[in-house]
TrEMBL record:
It comes from the Bacteria. It holds the Pfam family Por_Secre_tail. This is Secretion system C-terminal sorting domain-containing protein. InterPro entries: Secre_tail. Residues 24-99 form the Secretion system C-terminal sorting domain.
């Protein structure tokens, strides 16, 4: 993430172009889709944590793989506020989503 600004102006935050994770729909019922922008085909790991902080799912994509997403039935993990944690190119990105 790059910070732009001067001493007199507050910095503006630019999003990290390396990490893009989309979850939909949000809130989710019986299906949720995860999409990772991975045009450079870098290796990445996506982990899902339940409301208590327990990892309930892990998905690993090796370098060179063109896979960018998958669908999941989240109801087997329960309901509440979940976190998806994307690790790619040494960076970490977290996305919150709800399961109802």
């Amino acid at each position: 993430m790059a910070l732009l600004g001067s001493c007199n102006n507050p910095p503006e935050v630019e999003p990290d172009p390396i990490l893009t994770l989309v979850t939909y729909p949000n809130p989710a019922g019986k299906r949720i889709a995860f999409h990772v922008e991975n045009d450079e085909r870098a290796a990445f790991t996506l982990q899902i944590y339940d409301p208590k902080g327990k990892m309930v799912f892990e998905w690993q994509v090796p370098e060179g793989d063109a896979t960018q997403g998958f669908n999941l039935d989240p109801t087997e993990f329960g309901t509440g506020a979940f976190h998806a944690v994307l690790r790619k190119n040494g960076s970490v990105y977290t996305k919150k989503f709800m399961v109802i």
